[in-house]
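Technical note accompanying the year-one report. For the benefit of new consortium partners, we illustrate the data format agreed upon in the data management plan: each record pairs a sequence with a structure-token string. No post-processing was applied to the example shown here.
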Amino acid sequence: MPISGNQDLDEPATARHPRFPALLLGVPALLFVLITWQVVTDGPLVRLDERVSRGLVHPDGLSEFLSDLGNVQVALPVLAVALGYVALRTRGTDRWWLPVLAAALAMALVPALIVPLKELTDRPGTPAVPPATGYYPSGHTATAAIAYGSATLLLLPRLRAPFARRALLAACLALVLGTSFGLVRHGYHWPLDVVASWCLCAVLLSSLWLFLRRAAPPEQSRPA
């Protein structure tokens, strides 16, 4: 039977472009390796990072509030609510627990990856914080990105209205970018600390997204 144009449009991007998953995972992973190499060797990118930071740091109440969005006490309850909601809505269906478990595992990987990297790189903090090391990469950025990002990936298939889907994506983006801006603005982290966490979380969230697409029923796996 010939494939119609509409059927071709409904194919997932990963099916139409076999190299897409490799690019989705490979590009941010490569950037993360490059940034980490510069941090470890105190390369020219680090010196540029320090100059940029001096121009951005301006501690105030707003930046502190935004940076607190990456606290475990704030971000984890949001993910927990999303996990509970999805579990209740899908319980009893085939392998209903897989998406919930996958998102929880992504969150558990944050400290498992971030803590050893902090010890390995041993990067000192900005002049705005007390003298210490272990600031690279940013744990608060990673916590926000994975918690809010995983919650978004779980909830998106259950929203049918395009406006609701866009609003959820916009809220997730605002929370992650707000946290990142607050951390840099207040001087809690160098900009490269935050960018490296973006790259690392892009790999984790892309892996989760690819897994959820494979695990979801056919009617939920197509892009909106």
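Partners are asked to follow this layout when depositing records. DSSP finds eleven helices and no strands in the chain.
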